[in-house]
Amino acid sequence: MELVGLVLNAVDGTKILADVSRKKSYFREDLEKLLSKLDDTVLEEIFEEIEYNEEAEKGREYRLPDDIADREKLLGKIEEQLKTLNDAGAKQLNETDGDARMIKTESGNKFCYNAQASVGDKRGIVVGADVTIEQNDTHQLGPIRF
Fold it and tell me: The whole model's pTM is what?
């Protein structure tokens, strides 16, 4: 029984959305802007105002989280995230799924994967597949594993 004829195959690709929250994402450009603003003296006044207001409202629920209310902790967190981006060689990362990347889809840029599949013409059996994090799939035909 001949299930697969390797003469004619159909190849197609699709974007598979990662199951991530955009709130758990960080972007190099945003982190660098925030880092430069942390050096501004205007921001120093804002942090002093935050500290003053928090002292005045002790016991109330409305407070900034400790990791961003303290300037040094915030600075450390930003530097740690930038180091993670540098180590990964990425412009953006998500804490939930560190492998997913921002890829342009029909509904905008989303964290996802780029999947390719090759199907045999005889019975429609998948004969090769590959998943990447590259946005463009024009050169993905060669690496599909048969």
Answer: 0.65
